[in-house]
Design a protein that fits this description.
This protein is of the alpha/beta class. The protein has two domains: 175 residues, Rossmann fold; 51 residues, no CATH class. 49% of the residues lie in helices and 13% in strands. It has twelve helices and six strands. It is globular and about 50 Å long.
Length: 245
């Protein structure tokens, strides 16, 4: 359990063209067991995500975070509003700073092009297993805005290394070691830049069997980061690499 003087609310945002349903499946159980109430906004855009974080703040510091794009937006918001944030849960961060060349950004752009030219079914062709089922559930909720949402996400500038260095709150970073779209190397770059962070890893296979595997990894990393004093950026590189093993 978290101590009584810490934040009691966590606002978690979905990834690109995902939704609050997936966020709840990942985080609701682990956060409840830690004594945190989950707020999962039904926002559908970058601007909507930022607005949801602003709306959730009522004068008491929040834990913020999310999955992929949601994690990146939450970290950017925390860097802009340090007085409003008690910590960050960053699951599957996809890039640092400029999205150019990042696998997740390229995938979102390519999916948008197929949605526009051939339709939703073609964009999801060949995406099997639990991920395919999840996308087939979530993507239709965006309707005609889907391609635009995918392109918006692909163009979003995540916090740079310099911005991450100024984020002094505890940050729990979670990655899947078998995820080529959200490479674990990106998660390690986040942890190396952040003054007070820890990394825990899981796998896409584990996430398919149990959505909470990702939430538990992020929360465990956050709690570990909270026990750690702030360190000068760049001094924990070798430890970050071992944290998820």
């Amino acid at each position: 359990m978290l101590s009584s003087d810490t934040a009691t609310t966590a606002v978690l945002l979905p990834g690109t063209a995902s939704d609050e349903v997936f966020v709840r499946s990942v985080f609701a159980g682990p956060l409840a067991r830690a004594g945190l109430a989950l707020v999962a906004p039904a926002s559908r855009s970058v601007a909507g995500h930022f607005a949801a974080l602003d709306a959730a703040w009522t004068g008491k510091p929040l834990v913020v975070g999310g999955v992929s794009l949601g994690a990146q937006i939450a970290a950017a918001w925390a860097a802009r509003h340090p007085e409003r944030c008690a910590g960050v849960l960053a699951a599957l961060p996809a890039w640092v700073g400029d999205p150019a060349g990042a696998p997740a950004a390229l995938a979102a752009s390519a999916s948008a092009a197929v949605v526009d030219s051939e339709g939703l079914a073609a964009a999801l062709a060949g995406v099997d297993g639990w991920l395919g089922a999840e996308l087939r559930r979530a993507w239709p909720r965006y309707g005609e805005r889907l391609a635009a949402v995918l392109r918006e996400a692909a163009a979003f500038h995540a916090p740079s290394s310099g911005e991450l260095r100024r984020l002094a709150v505890p940050v729990g970073v979670a990655a899947c070691t078998d995820d080529q779209v959200h490479p674990v190397e990106v998660a390690r770059k986040w942890v190396e830049a952040l003054p007070r962070a820890a990394l825990r890893t899981t796998t896409l296979a584990a996430l398919g069997a149990d959505r909470e595997a990702l939430g538990r990894a992020a929360l465990d990393a956050y709690l570990a980061a909270g026990r750690r004093p702030a360190e000068p950026p760049g001094t924990r590189g070798s430890r970050a690499g071992r944290a998820g093993l």
